[in-house]
Fold this sequence. Notes:
4 domains, 3-stranded mixed β-sheet, Clc chloride channel, transmembrane helix (chains A, B)
Amino acid sequence: MTCKWLRYFKNDRDRRDLVTCGSAAGIAAAFRAPVGGVLFALETVSSWWRSALLWRAFFTTAMVAVVLRALIDFCKSGKCGLFGKGGLIMFDVTADYVTYHLVDLPPVITLGVFGGILGSLYNFFLDKVLRLYNLISEKGKTYKFLLAATVTVCTSCCLFGLPWIASCKPCPTDTEEACPSIGRSGNFKKFQCGMNEYNDLASLFFNTNDDTIRNLYSAGTDDEFHMSSILVFFAASYFLGIFSYGLALPSGLFVPVLLTGAAYGRLVAMLIGSQSTLDHGLFAVLGSAALLGGSMRMTVSVCVVILELTNNLLMLPLVMLVLLISKVVADAFNTNVYDLLVRLKGFPHLEGYAEPYMRQLSVSDVVTGPLQTFSGIEKVGHIVHVLKTTGHNGFPVVDEPPFSDSPTLYGLILRDHLLVLLRKKDFIRSCTSSTLNASKHFTHDEFAKRGSGKQDRIEDIELSSEELEMFVDLHPFTNKSPYTVLETMSLAKALILFREVGLRHLLVLPKSSKRAPVVGILTRHDFMPEHILGLHPFLFKSRWKKVRLGKLNVTSIL
Amino acid sequence: MTCKWLRYFKNDRDRRDLVTCGSAAGIAAAFRAPVGGVLFALETVSSWWRSALLWRAFFTTAMVAVVLRALIDFCKSGKCGLFGKGGLIMFDVTADYVTYHLVDLPPVITLGVFGGILGSLYNFFLDKVLRLYNLISEKGKTYKFLLAATVTVCTSCCLFGLPWIASCKPCPTDTEEACPSIGRSGNFKKFQCGMNEYNDLASLFFNTNDDTIRNLYSAGTDDEFHMSSILVFFAASYFLGIFSYGLALPSGLFVPVLLTGAAYGRLVAMLIGSQSTLDHGLFAVLGSAALLGGSMRMTVSVCVVILELTNNLLMLPLVMLVLLISKVVADAFNTNVYDLLVRLKGFPHLEGYAEPYMRQLSVSDVVTGPLQTFSGIEKVGHIVHVLKTTGHNGFPVVDEPPFSDSPTLYGLILRDHLLVLLRKKDFIRSCTSSTLNASKHFTHDEFAKRGSGKQDRIEDIELSSEELEMFVDLHPFTNKSPYTVLETMSLAKALILFREVGLRHLLVLPKSSKRAPVVGILTRHDFMPEHILGLHPFLFKSRWKKVRLGKLNVTSIL
């Protein structure tokens, strides 16, 4: 049972908004980046944007920021143990020393280009690995568990084994930190070294991700690491990041990429940093930006998140430049990691833009039949039959004579609402009588969207054969304002409507008035390239993964 | 003559995108806030949002940031005179001393509440003053000039006269700055005071806006100003800001509000700041945020702009809280200042949300006739007649028999394109022959959108009486995929379609197939409250400036 006032949120739109705000809140709390959280949610999560949503997301993260700040304040006195560690800025690299000049541009641009390539490769490998994991997971829970266990063991071996190959480094003399440190945190891990030495690779592996990132970002530590150690650490975190994702374990994308990117930045700094005046710590920050730009392909939100993580506004022009370059480079190869994940999950994710071949197709080229429609007052048996035999979620309601002069489109009714009607069994005896106030028999609650997994199913509703012969008046429960397009509408423009307005069903009207008042219904699936390619084998996939059609007009061929 | 490659931008959509990117670049350069610029442009300028636009705006401001940073570098050596002053952060208030606790919340919330009230009052006064200025300006250029001259003289008198009422303050002993200063800049202006004294009000008035803001934001200067001076300065800048806008002079909104807000913050700090541990300089920053939130009603972008201006990430939770409160308070009174300006200019600005009464109306309730349609092959004389007698910018093209079995909607043709056709005089003799390759006679250039003020007019096109009797084939020039709605569509949902997809024309289709294939055309003007109220006097304006209708169904009344 849900709280009474919560029922206002029990519809698709509010639920979608809540998901967006929730992800904004998550980013805001995890990275202590409230503005970054808003932008992340809008750029990645939400497929379409309303100013009300911006305001709601901002409200959410502002609350998160205030509560977070209050808790940090409260925990500063050590009341919360390890939870209370750290301030509002996670990796503070504020520095007055940040100066960069024209000579720094070539190394930074190089960093961006290779960051883009590595980022798109990251997505490519992740895709392959996830497909493999999906195949294994399908075999059963045991396999799923064994897979997770195997990867965990391999990861542990890797993390503990790799530091053995690194040689010991003598402790720096001018550091304030303990060197070597043996405790649970510290920049200079002793591992298997002597008294005044430390193992740099162990220092990277045997810390939390946060501490390692802080370590890599820190300034004035150009000589703290061997190049070989950084290379090993980069390669290990790159591939472990890919192999850890998608297991039956809690793991993420953002922090691994941030970490790998920091190592990548350090590596580039060691290779070509001598050309530039920049500190290796700043190269690490830029490396994170480059890999995030190459993998996530977000621009504004990554920019703000990095700004909020590092508190270094002076670096902003360089961060923007790196993001720009890595995104452009990576976009030439494949799509961003979130689209990839959504596609792997099998959700019909609509691209934000129309592919070129869609301009050549009209809506009628992709609509597939047969179309199931209901009359305004429909026989219960027919509804049950249609619901049982099709998987459609929306049905046009058409008024036939004698209720109208000619067949007229009345609106669209949802499967969910039909199920509510059938369960209530508020039927009428004949198809001529109308129950204008039928909607009064229902409360708002009954039409509220149920939680996922709690949907009604038609099989669960039992109706007697007498009830199946009765009628139900659909008029009060029909959406009288469905969005519509003409069958001659270009598919590209229909896609824009679908995306921008956030639709689930789009009714297709006939061009000529002599036909039925509605000729089809478009859903997300109808816009999927696989569906369109199935219908139109003339379309071919080009080498560059974009389906192209050239000047050919398919509608005239078919 | 335009560059050849520029013609790709000569259409409505690209031009709109360019305006958005341009404003982003402007904010980025003026406030050295590249990310703030992107968000400002998206939140304020662009009425609808596409991910491609976000990317373009980001690209623009990244370029601005890099060029800006390079120029700052170049100018640092004094090569650019006064131009080269200042770094990437305009009002740097970076401070490790920023600590705030629960006790600071009440003063900050108070600041937000009154900031919201003052912000909405700012908009209210600005509206009244601009209406007055418009009345005066309409009388002619002389009046316009006299108005600007009068206000300028009054402003000068005010700025020079007011410091006389302030008393002198003894110079602080621990400052590094010259006190009193007599040069063109400096925090402690001597004005009419003695050798070791300064006039605090003169120090505020006799500086550039930037220097004054920096002065007000600076920390550790709680005793630099008398409360009376701050009060006078606040009142003066509040009202001078309102009176200066809309004159035939270059003036702005953002900086005056920022300045006034800083003074407001200082004032609040002096009144109730003793309750809190916050520095008066930080109160000034929060005051700017409060007044910006109350007047502009932007959240995320103001937040980022203030962050980029002041480089103080630790303040972010407080800035967000203040923005939240002032926006909520101000929204209870009136609309944001940009909507207000757009409305004053007479542009048909569509709100981002549908008013409650729109849900009660259907599209057919607001469409006004008579509808002008063209046949697929239309007589030139008829086109000229229609273009001369109506001001419409788009016309449905309907194919009548014998070209189709029954009247069929073919598409929508724009006035601009009809004018191009008429000017080219590529006519045909009879209405039965069709010129399928007529579009080949035209180049892309000819249909390119002209610059503002350069549009063709129907009066400029001269046609002989023989030509008027000829025909023109509209098919190749018609947009075959116009967006359409049914006449029963709720007005609220049509508005959402209009807004989200960024339309100019929306064709209204009949519900019953026995009527003409198109029954009307919706433009922005049809969604304006004035238009709807004119058609439906039953709707009444409620006290709270929202037109409400309650449970009444207007469509059933009419």
